[in-house]
Amino acid sequence: MKRVEAIVRPEKLQDVKSALVEIGATGMTLEDVRGFGRQKGQTSTYRGISYTVEFLTKKRLVLVVSDERLNLILETIATAAATGSIGDGKIFVSPVNEVIRIRTGETGEIAL
Question: Residues of the chain whose pLDDT is less than 50?
Fold first, then answer.
């Protein structure tokens, strides 16, 4: 099993969610996050005054998936989240040793 953590643009969230639901993904967690990558924030001008927004608003989706579905999930997120511009986000993949469904006590992939 793998934990997939995707940081995406807020305006692409619905596209990513819809694409994941369409391929049968279940059990997503969503968080509002702020940060920056290579773009190092964003400079804007308001009424002639320039200011820098150092931490941009992003959305973080977290899923735990079986090894068999990993590549499909990654391709789906990358395709749905892409705009081709700087700041599209990142996807991180980590191993998951165990999952326990608290309500039933089920463990492993069946608990997903």
Answer: none
